[in-house]
Amino acid sequence: MAAARRLLGSWVLLAPLLGGLALLGVGPVPARALHNVTAELFGAEAWGTLAAFGDLNSDKQTDLFVLRERNDLIVFLADQSAPYFKPKVKVSLK
Fold first, then answer.
1. Cα-based angle 9, 14, 16 (whole degrees, multiple of 5)
2. What CA–CA distance (Å, rounded) separates 49 from 84?
3. Are 67 and 51 in contact (CB under 8 A)?
4. How far does the signal peptide extend, from start to end residue (predicted)?
5. CA–CA separation, 42 vs 70, rounded Å?
6. Sequential pLDDT tens for the chain (94 residues)
7. How far is C-alpha 75 from the chain's CA centre?
8. Cα(68)–Cα(73) distance, rounded to whole angstroms?
9. Cis (ω within 30 of 0) for the bond into 30?
10. CA-to-CA distance for 11 and 18, rounded, in angstroms?
């Protein structure tokens, strides 16, 4: 019984302290919502099925291989400016 009173007494002391820290913004940072970066990466070319990725032109940046309409393979080469992946090579598989 005495232990329960001590535990309750410690919570009475800690509650205002924790509340004050919460008001100051001290403690874990709340999770931020994710946002869609597809338009920034691909621009208007953001459609198709990603088939593979790798470094096609040896520039040490990841390039993407995208299948479209079952017959076209589009190679998106990485770039330093937006949109960061631009379609550069189109191979028709007809």
1. 115
2. 18
3. yes
4. 1-22
5. 20
6. 666 555 555 555 555 655 655 555 555 656 678 899 999 999 999 999 999 999 999 999 999 999 999 899 999 999 999 999 999 999 998 7
7. 22
8. 6
9. no
10. 10
| Other beta carbons less than 10 A from residue 82's beta carbon | 12
Letter for the amino acid at 73? L
Three-state SS at 18: helix
Cβ contacts of residue 57 below 8 Å, gap of 6+?
63, 77
Cβ count within 10 A of residue 76: 24
Among 48, 30, 35, smallest CA distance to 85 is for: 48
